[in-house]
Structure formats: C-alpha cells, structure tokens
Design a protein that fits this description.
133 residues; alpha+beta; 60s Ribosomal Protein L30, Chain: A; 8 strands; 27% helix
Length: 133
C-alpha cells in the first residue's frame, strides 16, 4: 500500500468543501488551487502580483511540510481573473521558478469571489530538483 499524507492550511473552506491544501502520494505532491487567503481573509486586495506572491508562499510551505522543495515542482497552473494581469503574475512566477522551469499553463478564469485576482496550483516530484536550483 502506498502511503498518503496531506496538509491543510487552516482555511474553513477545506473542511466545508472536503479538500486539503496538498496531498503527497509516494514521491508526488499535488497542491490545490491556492489563493491569497490568509488567517484574516484576503491578502493584497487589488494587487494580482501581490496575491501571486502570497499564493506561491503558501504553495512552497505546503510542499515543504510534505518533504519536498520548490525545486521539485514540475508543473504549475495559473488562473487570472483579468487577462491584463497575466504579465505581472507571470513575472512573479518567473521570480520563483526562473531556474526551476516547470511546465506551466496560464489562463483567464472566473475565480470564486471578485476580490480574488489569481489562483495557482502546483505538482511536484520529490527528489527531482536539479543541483543548480
């Protein structure tokens, strides 16, 4: 039997809607769509780049807590509410993943709540980080 571990981020949505922040099965980590939601609610209102940074911090924390690293990320998906934000959000992605270079998709999507400008999900393979990351 393959071991399954999960981690939550403490937001009420996880329990209410039956999911967790991230799940690890064997050497794979799958991170749910992540928004800029902190303990007190929305972080960086009106700032897509700020929301992307916060979401990526949450993603990194989830991956790390399950034994991986940001360097192990092999795929990201970015959803933006306003297509005009794609470049700023893409630049934030580049700040964090410029050397890692995971496969990536960026699309415009209707997000849950008008205040949310970006949502990001990720997949990682633990142990796949290159030495130069």
């Amino acid at each position: 039997m393959v071991e399954r571990k999960s981690v939550g981020s403490g937001v009420s949505w996880e329990e209410t809607y039956g999911y967790c922040r991230a799940v690890r099965v064997a050497d794979r980590i799958y991170v749910s769509g992540t928004t800029a939601t902190g303990p007190d609610g929305l972080v960086a209102p009106g700032d897509a780049a700020g929301q992307a940074r916060f979401a990526l911090d949450k993603i990194e924390a989830a991956i790390t807590s399950l034994g991986g690293s940001l360097g192990d990320v092999v795929r990201t998906r970015i959803f933006v509410a306003n297509v005009d934000d794609w470049k700023r959000v893409g630049e934030v992605h580049g700040e964090r993943f410029g050397k890692i270079r995971p496969a990536n998709t960026l699309v415009r999507a209707d997000l849950i709540g008008d205040e949310y400008l970006v949502e990001i999900e990720a997949e990682a393979v633990v142990g796949s980080a290159s030495a130069d990351v």
